[in-house]
Amino acid sequence: MTNLLEIEAAIKQLPENDVRQLATWLQNYLNEKCDRQIESDLASGKLDDLIAKAEADIAANNVKEVNEVKKLRGILKDKNPDRKLVDELIQERREEAASE
Q1: Residue 47: exposure state from Cβ atoms within 10 A (0-12, 13-18, ≥19)
Q2: Which domain of life is it from (predicted)?
Q3: pLDDT tens for each residue of 72-99
């Protein structure tokens, strides 16, 4: 198999159980790859500023408990199911970074 289209076509021919096993393997592969990237970024210092900001926010009590965040997400989702809080947060962070 040399390209993505051939791989996709081959996957479509697999029995469902094999596709599920492949999906599990692929998710594990991606998780490991992500973990290695985070470890690399930590070792290189790329995350130092982010860690320092998080620590400062914690020290200043500018963070919410996970349960509070989940509760707020549930409330907001009921009000506007199409609203994507992650996208809003990313946009806010980009705006903050642009203004620095």
Answers
A1: middle
A2: Bacteria
A3: 767 666 666 666 767 777 888 888 888 8
Q: What would the two tokens of residue 33 be?
A: 């790859």
Rg (CA), the chain: 20
SS3 content of the chain, % helix, strand, coil (to 5): 80, 0, 20
Return d(Cα 43, Cα 5) in angstroms, integer: 37
Amino acid at 25: W
Amino acid sitting at position 69: V
**What SS3 class is residue 82?**
coil
Which of these, 81, 86, 47, lies nearest to 69 by C-alpha position? 86
Q: Is there a contact between 31 and 39 (Cβ–Cβ < 8 Å)? A: no
